[in-house]
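Bench log, entry 3. Co-assembly request; chain sequences pasted below exactly as received.
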Amino acid sequence: MSTADLPKQYDPQDAQRRWYSFWLDHGYFHADPGSPKPSYTIVIPPPNVTGALHLGHALNNTIQDILIRWKRMQGFDALWMPGTDHAGIATQAVVERRLLEEEGKTRHDLGRDALVERIWAWKHEYEKRILNQLRLMGCSCDWERTRFTLDDVCARAVRTTFFRLFQADKIYRGKRLINWDTQLRTAVADDEIYYEDVQGQLWTIAYPVAESANGETLHVATTRPETMLGDTAVAVHPDDPRYQHLIGKELDLPLTGRRIPIIADAVLVDPKFGTGCVKVTPAHDPNDYQTGLRHNLPQINLLNPDGTYNENAGPYAGLPGKVVRKKVVADLEAQGRLIKVEPYATRLNYSDRSKTPIEPYLSDQWFVRMGDNPDGSPGFAQSAIDAVTSKQVTIHPDRYAKSYIDWLTEKRDWCVSRQLWWGHRIPVWHKTRPSEGEFESSELPGLIRRWKEEGRIDETDRKPSDVTHGDISDPDIPYHFICILREHDTEVVEALERNGHFVQDPDVLDTWFSSALWPHSTLGWPDQTPELAKYYPTSLLSTARDIISLWVARMVIFGQFNMKDVPFKDVFIHPVIQDGNGKRMSKSAGNGIDPVDIIDLYGADALRYTLASLATETQDLRMPVEQAKLPDGRVVNTSERFEQGRTFPNKFWNASRFALMNLDDYDPDRLGHDVEGDGSEDLWILGRLNQVAREVTAGLESFRFAEVAKILRDFTWNDFCDWYVELLKGRLRDPARRPIAQRMLVIVLDGLCRLLHPIIPFVTEQVWQGLNQVAPRRFDPTSMEVQTAAESVCIASWPTYPETWNDPDAEAIVSHWREKITALRNLRAERNIPPSAKIAPTFVATGSVADALTRGAGQIKGLANAESIRVVPRADHPPGCAVAVLTDAEIILPLDGLIDKKAETARVRKALADVDKPLAGTRAKLSNEAFLTRAPAEVVETLRAKEAELSAQRETLSALLATLDEPVGGSPR
RNA sequence: GGGCGAUUAGCUCAGUCGGUAGAGCGCCUGCUUUACACGCAGGAUGUCGGGGGUUCGAGUCCCUCAUCGCCCACCA
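Structure output for the full assembly:
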């Protein structure tokens, strides 16, 4: 191959364009359920269509692609299922914000259908962008199977699941406090709230004990006095001696004339705080709400949707909250019930969108039951815990299993309804109040019975007397819900909605509801598809730790419910990328790094290699952010940590370039004079290649990506490039030895392409294609024969080399060479011998060391730039020589006309000091009686041998120093 | 408040079985050696956060303190 085809610097952009489309054209990424190969499956954590991918996505997708490519090469029918998430609240919020900024409109101006249409348009744009980013990174997803959590396939799975949950009484209607934006009249998600510390006030109010002879009162403190109108209890700590006699008694709630109980609650009340009495307003405070559930307290809702007070507030009805507060305070004061008012720093919740305070608001929501079944058998949460404790699902690193289990142990029911427009609409129709009466006489009751028998609908028809276990709905209100199986069952929908008997629930499902189905919905469930049969359960899930509870746990739950099996066998939790100061990267903070910028700057392989080398078991990893200029002039964020990823593929490229330039006359069938290689270096490098292949395989099996990246880099750079290729250069120039050298080069390069491919797919494909041009027929590690290589490294076999490729003798010999050559280079540097000057060293050595050096004379001459070398069993130190004393040899280097006694003395003294330090430590240990008697014999033996070696080395150095006519220091102790 | 993690070279991090510490970048010296200056050769750099314990021996195991970060809950 001519150098013209092989630019000095690897051009990642060119390779990316060429080979990605090449892979797609050949369909390598497409999995085939009909294939006899065993399956290996990963479903992508679907990125939100809210925006572009960030560096965390890049890390996660690099990990997944490494595994998928590796398994594909191992002969698995590898499926990487791609797709995106509709991300309910997040996406709707993004589009609504833009609507407001650009057109000054709210969603109510547009209406439900028009807004949803806008969001679809946004989705199309970002989905395209996200999927394209994945392609740029080289991700080998099966694009023909791309899914979206809100597409028809997923929608069917969602509706079927909801229906089955409804039938199984795993879904119920309950109350929950939501964050209510009184201005926009809408529910707001937790992450759409911001806090502000404000200087408020704390009012202390006296509640009189009912029918108390001595006029006893309880003092309660509150930051929101107006909510007292909804109080349904006052709580004290059960162990508080001050109030023991009052527990169970009642209070006269001022201003209302209502009687409320005094309850004992250890959770809500901290007896050391304030007066030790807490007013309980279940409908307007999350803690009080929980307390209310514990004590079966009524929940009195005081609010209208617009923030004014309702009829439950009696005389205050119709007034806005602010005014109610003023009047309540004034009225309390007038009645002498206000004890004190003091300034108090408190935190207020505000809606991100309207910038107005959030009101906790009690509303009807749908819940999925997490607790155990009425018969005591494990419910959803317990089954999901069991899946992990029994290792049906293994979480790596295993410390995350704890957070998974801890969260599930609470068994808190999952609120699945959201007051949004973007998402899967809840397939439930409510009976409307006006329809009562005429409904009974209509044809509907009969139809409903029939449809139910046909399995098209299910219903919950509850009269006030019914009690459902765990159901926290208001027991006084009857309801009738119809759950519909098929969305397009127009016959049913029309009949239900006719005459306004039923209306569909306006809410949509929590986005995690559809995400929880992802591992089976994407494979076609509820249909029994060949894909489902083959690829479920999937093999691995790779994700970030912050969604272990939101997503991982729920996938296990729904997998067990729908599929009767867990969704994946392994879960890998990858680290979170932070900036150099340990802060989360974000667009708004300006410290984010865009993976596409890194690809533009250094290439996809650089991005992937760097991220892989950072993927350790740590939970956070830091990446100092700095700026760089793109070719087009844009200034973008990058990090010095991409340096390794940038240089390494280039190094590999250049080593390959050297090889390819020397393979023009490669002939796999012409083997020179030794089939088993030509020298110790060949046996050594094959042994190393074999060892590296095994370590890399083991590393991938246990998700040690950083270690795998390091092993491969070290082998490629330090063994292959720095030593093996250098050792080979002389042989390549010798026509008799060239064929074997070429054959060796091809074997190692072929192996490196395979081993590196999962991490850096583009440069390895580029090299593989080059190899295929000059050496299409070559050694194949699977068959152990010379045969035509695969047309792409994507589908080449993962290498497993014979165990016999392991030669400790060759390894020892080469390590002797390396050691002595390094010592010679060291001498050169220290004595300022120019690299170009030829030297003629003498090695003093015996036994196997001498053999190794004699055998490698030619190699050593080449790499140390020596014109001759001698190996002798003993020798004096003639004056005017530099001498290096190694543990098993001495090197005597005559320095013609370069006698510098001072420099040589300094050098030897330093060498002596270098020996003295470990020698002192070793001797100290060996003189420790306890060590000698208690440490294992072999440890003692090793140390003794080391001591002998160091002593001998020191002797020689001392003698050497003496010949330099300098005083010698005492023996170290 | 509960949980998890981190603290090792100037920076960012490895360090599996407890046996006297490594890498990349940066730094210093010298090299246009015909694969590579995104390179080659050589070099310097550590009280492994503090204290205590277990052990013949601790970066590694245990306790404790400090600092930083993340997650979850919460502040009447």
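Residues 623 and 641 of chain A are 7 Å apart (CA to CA). Chain A has 30 helices and 34 strands.
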